[in-house]
Design goal:
Layout lengths: L1 H25 L23 H12 L2 E6 L2 E6 L2 H7 L2 H6 L7 H6 L13 H15 L1 H28 L9 E4 H18 L15 H16 L5 H4 L1 H5 L5 H35 L12 H11 L6 H32 L1 H14 L15 H13 L9 E2 L4 E3 L2 E3 L4 E4 L1 H5 L39 H18 E4 L24 E6 L4 H6 L1
Parallel strand pairs: 2-7
Antiparallel strand pairs: 1-2, 3-9, 4-7, 5-6, 8-9
Helix pairs in contact: 6-7, 7-8, 7-18, 8-9, 8-14, 9-12, 12-13, 12-14, 14-16, 14-18
The chain binds protoporphyrin IX containing FE.
């Protein structure tokens, strides 16, 4: 009997070893560095920012390589051809999930937000509401004439007033921290579209941000740097149990503040909706969806489908869009202005185009944008060099699949290095140079870049972002002259934390109303 147990145990061990051996043989993972640490895998070897480290690794291991992030497989894609393969056909679906990290869980109500939800019903419903009610071409077009134009006028007015109040008789150059103004604008546009709420401003000419935008910026400045794909806190349970670095505490505090902020918006909308319904029952109100904000529309849907449109669902979607829409758009505009300051001839050429097409009797509006091709080239060139999400958002394989002929096991994280793809020397001549002319006269047609991603999880806010950036940059260049503070070039160092490529040092610039615009600026 004893020998029977012994034989059974040996057979079992042999079968398990054979299975591992065969599986190991059959799996052909992409190449990658051999040296890895126990438990942590390659994590300690990765210098930040990751996009440049990954570009170096791609030159050694090829367009798709394999790393271990803790016990997780990570596959990094670094060429246009493989990225296109990833985001078409069945593979696009197979890698449409998002990896789940403890830090992300802290800020996304258990991964139920649009940006981080797995590919499935919740994601589909959120994406549909966001696309139809906020980000469709039709909505964006209506918003351009109303909300965006109004907020932009307010921004120009504040800058002109601050300049008029400048020491030495006014009208001179003032020092402006641009990111704050650009964040304020992106934020107030989204707030108005979602809740038809105007931000609270004091009359102080020096105030560059509303109370609400300041609060949201503070919240996002805590959250974004703590939510990345390769942070030790996410991989080492001990760090989390002891809450080393205070990550959990900081995230919980930021989420509480964000909840207070968003629920206040929702409550205010609920009251407005009740008022509207009361008037409507008396026969006197126009309650068409076109006139409502996104939150009101979801609150109406809540009445018929309460299980789907819960308060948590609405809160999550609003918080998510405020986060996804503000930092990306304002950071891209900050990079654009930085590049323009370091390339004054490009700035001048963009201004000349605006002067000749729009003139100085009115502000740039949405109908002008198709007639300002050089401005469009400037924005495209910025998106190529400084994509706000340089590795998109992380994807995850829901099933075993193949990328570029290599095996990618289910559960692997798939990272696409858009930053490196956009600078691929095989596609772009002198790829590191800022040269908007490369997009002129259809010259870049057929060339590939992916600042907004591709496939099912592609950014749904591209329309709104492109329209906002066109109008804001167009008006800022039309109304003001911009110059650097000091003689040297503006620093281009990128931040190293989180998934958004911030400018390490916020841009400050000198801003002076243009002489040909003084009559219009006084009327605004
Ligand atoms: C210059 C501005 C922007 C850039 C460069 C940008 C870029 C991106 C990228 C690269 C992704 C990830 C795609 C992927 O994972 O494959 C993404 C996702 C997303 N973006 Fe944007 N974005 C911008 C503006 C906006 C705006 C204005 C909004 C909305 C108000 C928005 C909402 C979202 C959402 C909700 C997702 C997640 C989509 C999903 O997972 O299904 N973005 N964006």
């Amino acid at each position: 009997m004893e020998s029977f147990y012994y034989a059974a145990a040996v057979t079992f061990v042999l079968l398990v070893s054979l299975h591992h051996l065969l599986m190991g043989r059959r799996k052909r993972l992409p190449p990658g560095p051999r040296l890895a640490f126990p438990i942590l895998g390659h994590l300690p070897l990765l210098k930040k920012p990751l996009q440049t480290t990954f570009a170096d690794l791609a030159s050694r291991y090829g367009p798709v390589f394999h790393l271990r992030f803790g016990s997780r497989h990570a596959v990094v894609v670094g060429s246009a051809a493989v990225a296109k393969e990833c985001f078409s056909g069945d593979l696009d679906v197979a890698i449409a999930n998002r990896p789940h990290f403890p830090s992300v869980r802290e800020v996304t109500f258990d991964y139920t937000m649009l940006t981080v939800a797995n590919y499935g019903t919740v994601w589909r419903t959120m994406r549909r509401v966001a696309t139809v009610q906020l980000l469709s071409a039709h909505r964006v077009s209506i918003m351009s004439d109303s909300v965006i134009a109004r907020e932009l006028r307010a921004m120009v007015r504040r800058l002109a007033r601050a300049s008029a109040a400048a020491p030495g008789g006014g009208g001179g150059a003032i020092r402006v921290e641009l990111k704050r103004r650009l964040f304020e604008l992106s934020h107030s546009v989204l707030m108005e579209i979602m809740a038809q709420t105007r931000n609270t401003y004091s009359d102080d000419a020096d105030e560059d941000m509303s109370k609400e935008a300041r609060e949201m910026k503070d919240i996002l400045e805590v959250i974004f740097p703590l939510v990345g794909v390769a942070d030790l806190w996410d991989y080492l349970p001990l760090l989390r149990w002891l809450d080393v670095y205070g990550v959990r505490r900081k995230l919980a505090d930021a989420v509480n503040r964000r909840n207070v902020f968003v629920y206040k918006m929702i409550d205010a909308e609920r009251q407005k909706l009740e008022e509207l319904e009361r008037k409507n029952s008396e026969g006197g109100a126009d309650d068409s969806d076109e006139k409502k904000g996104m939150i009101s529309i979801m609150l109406s849907l809540q009445k018929t489908e309460p299980d789907i449109y819960t308060d948590a669902f609405i809160n999550g979607l609003v918080a998510n869009l405020l986060g996804a829409g503000t930092e990306t758009t304002s950071t891209t505009m900050e990079w654009t202005m930085t590049l323009l300051l370091n390339h004054p001839h490009v700035l001048k050429k963009a201004q000349e185009e605006i002067d000749s097409i729009v003139g100085s009797d009115r502000l740039v509006n949405k109908n002008d944008l198709p007639h300002l091709p050089y401005l469009h080239c400037v924005i495209n060139e910025t998106l190529r060099l400084y994509p706000a999400a340089p590795m998109l958002l992380p994807h995850e394989a829901s099933t075993d699949c193949k990328i570029h002929g290599y095996d990618v096991p289910a559960g692997s994280m798939v990272l696409v290095n858009a930053y490196a793809i956009n600078r691929d020397p095989a596609i772009w001549e002198d790829p590191e140079e800022f040269r908007p002319e490369r997009f002129e006269h259809g010259r870049a047609e057929g060339k590939f870049m992916m600042p907004f991603g591709m496939g099912r999880r592609k950014c749904p806010g591209e329309n709104l972002a492109m329209r906002t950036m066109g109008l804001v940059l167009g008006v800022l260049l039309q109304c003001f002259d911009w110059s650097r503070i000091g003689d040297g070039e503006v620093d281009m160092t990128t931040g190293t934390t989180g998934t958004i490529m911030f400018k390490a040092v916020p841009l400050e610039a000198l801003c002076k109303p243009r002489a040909n615009m003084s009559a219009l600026l006084q009327k605004i």
